[in-house]
Amino acid sequence: MNKRTPLAVIAMSVAALVAMPLAQAQDTAASTPKQVKQAERKAARAKKNAELKELEKNGYNPAGEQTNYPQNLQNAQAKVNAQKAGKPAPASAP
């Protein structure tokens, strides 16, 4: 480069050259067994949290009174299953 090349152009060129190998290294590092396991755990946790939110929307309260625990959970699950099947929700037991 000649003496009149702006410093910003040189800096951007150097940054681009440095960033390319770093980006490629991150792509290959993303598939390490540890990161794959972390991603799987994160996905499983998100799925379970979504399921719990569905149950809570349909009447289950995990922090509430647990005297009717299995029945409360089963009622909420029946409502969720009915919604997924497109049927009206069953009447809940007392």
UniProtKB/TrEMBL annotation:
InterPro entries: DUF4148. Residues 1-25 form the signal peptide. Residues 26-69 are annotated as: Disordered. Pfam families: DUF4148 (PF13663). Coiled coil: none annotated. Keywords: Signal. Residues 37-57 have a biased composition (Basic and acidic residues). Residues 26-35 have a biased composition (Polar residues). This is Purine nucleoside phosphorylase. It comes from Caballeronia pedi.
